[in-house]
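Workshop exercise sheet. Pairs work together: one partner reads the sequence aloud, the other fills in the structure field after running the prediction. Swap roles for the next sheet.
Pair: D.N. / O.F.
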Amino acid sequence: MSLHNWSTRWLKLSLAILLLILLCSLGLFFPLLASHSSNESAPMINQVRLKVNPILLELEQNHDRLAHPVVQERIREAASKENIPFSYVGLDGLIKLSSVSSSEGTLVNLRSVLHYNLADVLQLADGNESLDIAFPVMGSPEGPQVGNAIFTVPRSLVFAQKPSTVPIFLLVAVIILSLLLMFLLYTIVRRIKEQMLTPVKQLKHHAESILKGKYDEQIQYRRTDEIGDLYAMLDLMRMELMHLSTQRIRQEKAQKELITNISHDLKTPITTIKAYIDAISQGVCEDEDTLKEYLDIMQIHTDKTARLVEDLLVHALHELGQISVEPQERYSRSVFENMLRPIAHIVQSHGLTYEQPSPIPDVLIRIDPVRMEQVISNLVSNALKHTAPGDYIRIHAEVHSGQFKLTITDSGRGIQAQDMPFVFERYFRGGSSSSPYSTPIQEGTGLGLSICKSIIEAHGGQIHFSSKNGQETLFQFSLPLC
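Structure field:
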């Protein structure tokens, strides 16, 4: 079950429970209110009886002595004290004593003036401010009735007791509490929808876009909460995947270009070698000098082919993480003199001036001579590609800060500023120079400097360069001393 369906079902269930509670409260309130109204008259009669009880007591105790003035005065004082007018009527209908002396001796109709029931009194009162209520006067607790006392009481005395507000208060409290709970539930569900369901749904959409390879769709979420952290992590993942995808596409393109370039670079020397072999086989060489010239040319192209194959092998080993570097403790002078000795002939054969290091420091270092010769060969070949007849290549060696440093400087056209960040990247072959006669892309596989960097770092050293476009370029690597 989805989170959205779960929250919707719980909201409906909670609302149903609240409505059930509200209906039950109403069901309990109305019977309670009805029972309260039905019992309302009983406490009213009791309240009136308590009020007139002192007068009734005097009448019952002195009903046979009502003719004495002292008795009459005492009963009138009791009525005056309670502020309730009264009339004492005999069983024959004759008024024997009254708060109003002028009405004494008057004969009344007992049927019309005697009302013992409060409901009948209220019905006959019809909105009057005073009510006439009759109470029987007994001669003794077990004796016969001797008369009737009719009291005129104010309506306020009958309705003095206010109805209880407890049931209404309870009902209002239940209604308010139910409304508050409903509002709270609505607020909770709304916040869950806004801060959880909607962001999760958007997060799902972004994840599906990433799954389809749409990495350029930026993920935005402004709140700094747990969902925001999740959005941030997903966006970082998107950016990383986009970078890896771009890098993969670039690498695949570079590998295709590498195969094309290698095919071209291998085809040219092989074709040349084959042509000279055919010429020799056909007896074109008329003398030994011509044969030696052909053999030298074939040797040059054979070396070039060997270097290309070696670069490919090192590149493949580097891709597999299996590049073989076996450093040994050797003295630097003898090792580098042997490596640099053939460099002079190669540089001078290109019409360049060669400045060799003199002298080379003789210190103990850990070095793999085969791999290091490959580094120097690649750096010199790179310098030859960027120079023209009349330029120079200078090699300098020194020991500084516990490092053996070798510098190869050329006075060629330099490296363009936009190419500098990519010099040591695989497959990068550089752009064109400002010269209108230069080729758009430099020849080569684009692996040489990347291989140099890998070999130097495998020795525990570092390699860097500096260049000024149109002036000179300097490559320097350093190796730690033993």
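Discussion prompt: The radius of gyration is 60 Å. What would you look at next?
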